[in-house]
């Protein structure tokens, strides 16, 4: 069964990474796969805090939807990046 991480936990790890911690060290310390941590960092860099909201519900905030549309329309993001 997959482990579910809260948005707060994800944000905590991303902020620790941005403060200078290594991905490998953070992943090992918190028992999180490094690839997953990399994905959270990418989501945060693209969408800020909204990028770390759980995607299981498929109920995305309207702000995130509008941002994705604007980024795609302005060619800031590819269609694939908008769908992440």
Describe this structure in words.
- The structure is a single chain.
- By secondary structure, the chain is an all-alpha fold.
- It has one domain.
- The protein has five helices and no strands.
- Helix 1 crosses helix 3.
- The chain is 60% helix and 0% strand.
What order do the helices and strands come in, and which of them pair?
Blueprint: H1 7-18, H2 23-30, H3 34-47, H4 62-73, H5 79-82
Concise synopsis of the structure shown:
With 84 residues, the protein is mainly α.
Q: What keyword list fits this structure?
A:
84 residues; mainly alpha; 0% strand; DNA binding; WH-like_DNA-bd_sf; Homeodomain-like_sf
**Domains counted in the coordinates: how many?**
1
Pick out the low-confidence regions: none
Helix residue percentage: 55-70%
What is the gyration radius calculated from CA atoms?
Answer: 14 Å
Proportion of beta-strand residues: under 5%
Mean pLDDT: 87
Shape: globular
Task: Report, as a whole number of angstroms, the end-to-end distance.
Answer: 22 Å
**Largest β sheet strand count, sense and barrel closure:** none
Number of helices: 5
SS-based class: mainly alpha
Number of strands: 0
Secondary-structure element sequence? HHHHH
GO molecular function: DNA binding; transposase activity
Pfam families: HTH_Tnp_1
InterPro entries: Homeodomain-like_sf, Transposase_8, WH-like_DNA-bd_sf
Protein name: Transposase
């Amino acid at each position: 069964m997959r482990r579910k991480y809260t948005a707060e936990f994800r944000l905590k790890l991303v902020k620790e990474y941005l403060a200078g911690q290594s991905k490998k060290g953070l992943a090992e310390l918190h028992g999180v796969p490094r690839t997953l941590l990399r994905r959270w960092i990418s989501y945060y860099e693209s969408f800020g805090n909204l990028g770390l909201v759980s995607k299981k519900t498929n109920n995305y905030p309207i702000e995130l939807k509008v941002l994705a549309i604007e980024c795609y329309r302005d060619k800031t993001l590819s269609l694939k990046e908008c769908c992440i």
